[in-house]
Specification:
By secondary structure, this protein is mainly beta. It is built from 1 helix and 5 strands. It has a 5-stranded mixed barrel with strand order 1-2-3-5-4. Strand 1 and strand 2 form a beta hairpin.
């Protein structure tokens, strides 16, 4: 009986853990800046979020994903090449992200279509 109660409580705690909205409620802590970075707009359909995909030429797996705060609808086109600058910070794990990929939330200071 005691085992059943403990198991039930553990399941309840697990179900109320993290949500995909957790990043919206966290304080932005700056980790670094990017300036005139080239990237490509992509859409994460699992989380219904837009991000900017970047990679380092000549590498196999140096990939960074930047999830913009308050992205203008003008740039919400899958595959759109962009040039952007901003300040980035930590973000919780985003479902559907390949292992080894770095990901951040970003406050854009500028963005333009290429």
């Amino acid at each position: 009986m005691l085992f059943s109660i403990v198991f039930l409580l553990m399941g309840t705690v697990g179900l109320t853990g993290c949500s995909s909205d957790d990043n919206d409620n966290k304080e932005f802590v700056e980790m670094g800046q990017v300036s005139n970075q080239e990237g490509e707009m992509r859409f994460n359909s699992e989380n219904n979020q837009w991000y900017i995909y970047t990679f380092t030429e000549g590498t196999y797996d140096a990939v960074r994903l930047y999830y913009p705060i308050q992205l203008d609808d003008t740039y919400k086109t899958d595959g759109q090449k962009v040039l952007f600058s901003g300040t980035y910070g930590a973000i919780d794990y985003v479902a559907g992200t390949p292992a080894g990929t770095e990901q951040f939330v970003i406050k854009l200071t500028s963005i333009s279509k290429k």
